[in-house]
Amino acid sequence: MNEPVIITNTALCHDCYRCVRNCDVKAIRVMNGQAQVVQELCILCGTCVRVCPQKAKGVRSARHEVVQALREGRRVVASVAPSIPAFFPLRSFAQVEEALKSLGFHAAEETAVGAHIVAQAHREYMEQSIDRWPVITSSCPVIVNLVEKYYPDLITHLAPIVSPLIAHGRILARKYGPDAFIVFIGP
């Protein structure tokens, strides 16, 4: 699936160009009177989504694919971001897990599990890599995208460690099987 992550609703885009002015990597171009994200230049930071007063920029949703997987009876497993309490009044993760299971999910676990493993891996890498300093942690995909696209001379300083989401996804795939449909739920 090579669909754009940042999408533009052209009906809502009204020539304010705030996204163009605020994009630090200049990944937005005006084409046919519309501010469009240039995918090859975009680092997926979401600034354009946050600054758009008309809400014309958004993040592509995979909701349809998740609903389809649930309808097909696939084993759908959620990796849930630690930020979920910021969006829902929760007392425990068990409430999230229960709600997702009631929707047909097979299981739900916290992405923080992956974050803990990645933090340990970064600590070990730092201790073993004193000669490669500075080390840029690779937990944030936006930073990795920025380095790879705009500062390739710094790639050797990126820690060769996957993001917490990828680490957790791999854990879930091992735990629930290669046919599990892994879903990330986050902001």
Describe the model.
By secondary structure, the protein is of the alpha/beta class. It has seven helices and seven strands; from the N terminus they run βαββαβαβαβαααβ. β2 (28-31) and β3 (34-37) form a beta hairpin. α5 crosses α7 (164-176). It is globular. The chain starts with 5 loop residues before the first strand and ends with a strand.
Key features of this structure:
187 residues; alpha/beta; three-stranded parallel β-sheet; two-stranded antiparallel ribbon; 37% helix; globular
Q: Mind telling me the C-alpha Rg? A: 19 Å
Number of helices: 7
The arrangement of helices and strands along the chain is EHEEHEHEHEHHHE
Strand order of the largest sheet: 6-5-7
Detail the topology: elements first, then pairings.
Elements lengths: L5 E3 L9 H5 L5 E4 L2 E4 L9 H5 L5 E3 L3 H9 L4 E5 L12 H10 L4 E4 L1 H17 L12 H10 L13 H13 L4 E5 L2
Parallel strand pairs: 5-6, 5-7
Antiparallel strand pairs: 1-4, 2-3
Helix pairs in contact: 5-7
